[in-house]
Design brief:
The chain contains 13 helices and 16 strands. 49% of the residues are buried. By secondary structure, it is of the alpha/beta class.
């Protein structure tokens, strides 16, 4: 009888807790959908400040703006964390064309981030199309030397998970120039990482590794429509030379900042939970999806807690990281300072997959913690959030280590993300207000649950 009574009591407590959580989460979503600041914040970041490539004036303005906005929320602390970041400048608009007799077929191209410039008058050479790094290497130095290499492997449309499609071909962008240069190529042109056929070339970082500066070759992206046309043109005119010109330049590192704000925990101030995105963006658009959305959603989490009067048990910290796009310096510096200060991070949540409708989370955790978080799925079902899977959480929180930590990435619907990723059309008009707010609410709801029930030994 006593055992039955205990079981009934435990069941009653569980039901009470679940009902309480359901009500709190409903309150969180109501606040986000009726009293949010994230959309006007994004409007300012995108339309008043614009692109925010690390080391740029836009990045400096974004640091000051977001710090000022966090200060209006009545947080316990708002401060800047110094970090040295690279400064790369695109320069004049790039030019690219295929010369067929007296005819010039022009193509939309843009320099890849970190690329070196062409000679001032540009460069012109025969161009060879390949579909992989392996195909390039198989050609050997004899066929590659003195040529321009055209990497034309598209994102695989068969993958429903678009980040998997991206990962399957991004090596040609990140490593193409380095590998082609080893074989004597003088430049590379890379098909944009985009599932859609359009005229927007998509930038993104290229990595020369340990290649000496004097041996680095120019690298540019070509739009997907441009890649299709170039491929067809080369089949008909395989010996036609390709010309392109770009004037990008790398300067010395400059001082920038991570922007940090926090609510001190009421019971365990020494336990830190962070939520964040990266404040920098590429320079072609204004970075509304990548990652202005993630930044303002992270700020909104703290705004929601303030609006509903929720006092977290643990310290909740928003971190707007600088320099994710071409160095991850912000994430690395945050971890360095965390170690110096002997901070205990128990949870980290990142939003860096666009401002589309939230669908769930990718979770880096041991089996016990993963099962705990996945067990909350029913609480999110009314909001069409259903994906709770193991997977990569985020680039900026990647360096963060603690004795016990769970890392999670917000996963919005990704089908349209790569239409905008690193391109000139990643602008404010591409973000839907309601979808952005739903993402912020979903993040706040998970932060609330982790704060209530803990991780690891605290489960």
């Amino acid at each position: 009888m006593k055992k039955l009574t205990c079981l009934l009591l435990l069941n009653s407590l569980f039901v009470f807790a679940q009902v309480n959580d359901e009500q709190k989460i409903k309150e969180i979503y109501k606040s986000a959908l009726t009293n949010a600041k994230c959309y006007p914040w994004l409007d300012d970041l995108s339309n008043k400040i614009g692109s925010r490539l690390s080391g740029s004036t836009g990045a400096e303005k974004a640091v000051l703006y977001t710090k000022a906005q966090l200060e209006t929320l009545g947080l316990d602390k708002v401060y800047l964390q110094e970090v040295m970041v690279p400064k790369w400048v695109r320069g004049e608009k790039e030019v690219g064309y295929l010369q067929i007799g007296k005819q010039k077929i022009t193509f939309p191209i843009c320099a890849l981030g970190g690329s070196v410039a062409t000679p001032k008058k540009g460069l012109q050479a025969a161009i060879i199309e390949v579909n992989s790094l392996e195909e390039l290497i198989a050609l050997g130095t004899e066929k590659v030397k003195g040529k321009i290499i055209f990497f034309n492997r598209p994102m695989n449309p068969e993958f429903i998970e678009t980040f998997k499609a991206y990962g399957s071909c991004v090596d040609q962008r990140s490593s193409g120039a380095r590998e082609a240069g080893k074989l004597g190529a003088i430049a590379v042109i890379v098909r944009s990482m985009n599932l859609r056929l359009d005229d927007f070339p998509h930038t993104g970082a290229t990595n020369y590794g340990e290649t000496p500066k004097e041996q680095r070759i120019p690298a540019a992206a070509i739009s997907t429509n441009g890649a299709e046309l170039l491929s067809k043109s080369l089949k008909k005119n395989p010996n036609a030379p390709f010309y392109f010109k770009q004037s990008c330049q790398t300067f010395d590192d400059v001082l920038s900042y991570n922007v940090i704000g926090e609510i001190t925990g009421s019971e365990h101030p020494e336990r830190i939970m962070i939520v964040g995105g990266h404040l920098d963006s590429w320079d072609l658009g204004d970075g509304s999806h990548d990652d202005g959305a993630g930044c303002v959603q992270s700020m909104e989490v703290l705004n929601i807690f303030k609006n509903i009067g929720y006092k977290p048990k643990n310290t909740i910290r928003v971190v707007l990281f600088m320099n994710e796009e071409n160095g991850v310096r912000g994430g690395k510096e945050y971890e360095i300072q965390s170690n110096k200060n002997k901070e205990n991070h128990i949870f980290a949540l990142e939003s860096d997959s666009g401002g589309f409708s939230p669908r769930g989370f990718t979770i880096e955790a041991d089996e016990r913690n993963f099962n705990k978080i996945a067990g909350w799925a029913t609480l999110f079902e009314p909001y069409f959030v259903h994906k709770f899977v193991k997977g990569h959480s985020g680039v900026d929180i990647g360096p963060l280590k603690s004795n016990h930590i769970v890392k999670v990435g917000l996963q919005p619907d990704s089908q349209r993300y790569f239409d905008y990723h690193h391109a000139a059309n990643d602008t404010f008009d591409a973000v839907n207000k309601r979808e952005l707010e739903l993402g912020a609410a979903t993040m706040a709801a998970l932060m609330y649950l982790i704060d209530q029930y803990g991780i690891g030994e605290n489960l």
